[in-house]
Amino acid sequence: MTQQTSFRDIKKLSAYLDKQLSRSEQARLEARLAEQPDLQEILMELRQTRALLQKTPRQRVPRNFTLTPKMVGMRPPMPRSVPVFRLASITAAVLLFISFTFNYLAPIASAPSLAAAPQFSQSGGGCGSDDPADCGNPVMEAVPFGIGGGAPETATPELETAMSVPAEAITPEATPEASLRAMDQPTQEANIISPDLPALDTPPSEKSQVQTKPFMNPFQIGLVLLGIVCGICAILIRQINIQRWRKRQ
Amino acid sequence: MDEQVLILSAQKGDLDSFNDLVLAYQESLYNTAFRIMGDEELAADATQDAFISAFRNIGSFRGGSFRSWILRTVTNACYDELRRQKRRPTTPLEPVTSEEEEIESPRWLADPDFSPEQKFEQSELEHAIQHCLDGLSPDYRSVVVLADIQGLDYSEVASSLRTPLGTIKSRLARARLRLRECLQDFWELLPTAYRLDIESNP
Which residue of A139, A211, B136, B178 could cross-link B140, Cys pair, CB 3.0 to 4.6 Å? Predict the structure, then answer.
């Protein structure tokens, strides 16, 4: 750059190269270029520089820069089946809850009718057995089932022993501790279920009714099993869908 | 597909449409980033960041030159990276042999389109230009890269860099002046073919 060539001239020459000057500016500059060889030289050097830059080799991209949903924090849409399975899961859960609630509450609701069984045996005055020894002590028969919390068929040998105590032994003259022990024995042992032992005083017909009444009938069991299988299938399918969805993320 | 249609789809969140735009502009963005950063890895990172940023902000594109708009994202990404480097300067790891000699760019050596002589000339030219570009400040470098290497006109450069047109003219003139001085040192080293070509076709 000579003293006559200022940066303003360089700027004009640079713009002239790119045809960014107005017509009047271009005409004035071309007039100066015709008169000033140093200006021409600078213009040529700038042109060479620009031409060299334009010939800069293009770099090949090392890889594709396409974006994935994960890169931009996009979540792919949930599979269309997910809401269906979500609804199905809720429905199955509610139905199972209702089913189990009814199955558990039904025996409790019918408990008073079961409790009436021993009273019926007392009013009948018999134990349903020809052997008087099997009928036990009338005093002990008066003990309601509710004391032991057990059913008639829960009797044990100890219970039989206690019940075979003569009536005289359990009298007001007997010590309170002994009578209490005698009363407690069936209470403690009655919780042990001994289905092999005969019923204490329930008539066979009623005993069979109580024993044979199932918790759920086969139809209900089938429904529950079907519900469980369907539930497991729904969970599996849902998990598979969610895993596929996560892989797409 | 029409660029405007792709832009509209991308603005609605269609990533596939945006990826079509990525494929159309990735070479331009990567080369811009490479010339500004002077490093392949950093340029690739800046390009990727630029495309991610562009997708997130494509809703703010209100028409005009999409090319200058998307080049702005890459120059911004480069400036961010350069600022980071200024805060935490690092020593670049050049590929060297066991005798501590620098390895020529393996990419060019592996390029089947060039003869060994052409590869050498390309490498010399590229080295000279990049060396001189690195000597410029980022503001001047980005202007000359966009105007002379990417071929944007002044208004597009001004739009890309969000800088007034007058400033662009000044920076470009000053950058060319400095590059002229710098390249004069390399002039005799430049391949004969380039010199003859430039002198005969100014």
Answer: B136
pTM: 0.58
A4 contact B CB<8A? no
DSSP code at position B96: B
ipTM score over 0.90, yes or no: no
Give ∠ CA A50-A39-B126 in degrees, rounded to 5.
20
Closest Cα in chain B, distance from residue A46 (Å): 6
CA dihedral A236, A238, A241, A245 (to 10 degrees): -130
CB contact under 8 A, B40 and A10: no
**Region of residue B64 (left: phi > 0; alpha: psi -120 to 50; beta: else):** left
Whether A65 sits inside 8 A of B153 (CB atoms) is: no
B105, two tokens: 């760019």
8 Å CB contact of A54 and B151? yes
Phi and psi angles of residue B96, each rounded to the nearest 5 degrees, phi first: -130, 160
Integer Cα distance of A91 and A131 in angstroms: 57
Considering only the beta carbons, identify the residue of A44, A49, A65 that sits closest to B176. A49
Q: What angle do CA A120, A124, A129 make, to 5 degrees?
A: 110
Low-confidence ranges of chain A (pLDDT < 50): 2-3, 119-174, 179-180, 182, 186-200
Q: Are B31 and A58 within 8 A, CB to CB?
A: yes
**What is the residue type of A16?**
Y
What residues of chain A lie within 8 A of the CB of B172, using their CB?
14, 18
Which pLDDT tens digit goes with each residue over A165-174? Answer: 444 444 444 4
Q: A223 in helix, strand or coil?
A: helix
A74/B176 CB distance under 8 A: no
- Reported as a single tens digit per residue, the pLDDT across A187-222 is 444 444 444 444 445 555 555 555 556 666 777 788
Q: Which of B47, B148, B177 sits opposite A54 (nearest CB)?
A: B148
Helix (H, G, I), strand (E, B) or coil at A33: helix
In B, minimum Cα distance to A50 occurs at: B148
Query: Which residues is B96 bridged to in the sheet?
Result: B102
Q: Between B13, B153, B198, which is nearest A51 by CB?
A: B198
Given an 8 Å threshold on Cβ–Cβ distance, is B183 in contact with A49? yes
**Rounded to the nearest 5°, which phi and psi values hold at B102?**
-70, 135
